[in-house]
Design goal:
The two termini are about 35 Å apart. Strand 4 and strand 5 form a beta hairpin. This protein is mainly β and about 240 residues long. The strands form four sheets. Strands 8, 13, 15, 16, 17, 18 and 19 form a seven-stranded mixed sheet that branches.
Length: about 240
């Protein structure tokens, strides 16, 4: 389903139906997912539709740019140790229209349940989009329209054993890639102390031949001061 499409087109996939039809110089966009509908007209000519996986922060609405993955088990990392693990993350699907001069998002949807959590102190902590994932030593099988795979490089820069139970990311730094059967991204977490770590994303796919997805904050011309996240309230 991911890729570029000429107008008109129609896609039916796992309970989701969406289409764009020509009506003169207007394009009529319609989407239905189990009764969740969207119907709009778009005035644009000589364009394509792009369907890409996007940062999982937009549904039901943009509340936070922070994304927390809780691990199914504690990961122990030896002093100065480096370990690569794989995690799953939820997919949101962005529908873009590519016109003569720019690209605009027209719809975002997801097959996955939406949850939020608080990282840190109840009074001063931060709201995060929440996800729970098993830890994998190899790339797990996923439905690419529901979940992606994150390759996470864990670096313990301390001289003590470290226990890692979660990772929090600034999702504005996500670099998502996709192919026919996989959505992926790479990230790095540096353990700096017993309760402190820093996370950031790596701009490369986990398999060769994957295509880079559109970045929503770039399309929306948002100014982003940093794409890293410092975990100061526990790891």
């Amino acid at each position: 389903m991911f890729g570029a499409y000429d107008i008109p087109f129609k896609i039916v996939n796992e309970g989701l139906v969406f289409s764009i039809e020509n009506d003169g110089e207007l394009n009529h966009y319609m989407r239905d997912y189990h009764g969740d509908t969207l119907d709009k007209y778009i005035f644009s000519v000589k364009n394509k539709i792009l369907i890409h996986p996007v940062e999982p922060l937009n549904i039901p609405k943009e509340i936070t740019s922070n994304f927390l993955i809780e691990f199914s088990n504690t990961l122990m990392v030896e002093p100065q140790g480096v370990k690569t693990i794989y995690l799953k993350f939820p997919i949101e699907i962005g529908i873009f229209i590519s016109g003569k001069k720019n690209i605009e998002i027209i719809d975002i949807l997801s097959y996955m349940p939406q949850k939020f959590s608080l990282y840190g102190d109840p009074r001063n902590g931060i709201i995060c989009k929440y996800w729970y994932s098993e830890i994998y030593s190899t790339i797990p099988a996923v439905n690419p329209f529901q979940e992606g795979v994150m390759e996470l490089i864990v670096r313990n820069t301390t001289n003590r054993w470290a226990e890692l139970t979660q990772a929090v990311f600034n999702a504005y730094g996500m670099k998502i890639y996709f192919s026919k059967d996989l959505v992926s991204m790479k990230a790095d977490i540096k353990i700096l102390g017993e309760e402190i770590a820093e996370t950031y994303f790596i701009n490369s796919p986990i398999k060769t031949g994957m295509k880079k997805s559109m970045e929503l904050y770039t399309v929306r011309n948002l100014l982003v001061s940093t794409t890293r996240f410092v975990m100061e309230w526990g790891i």
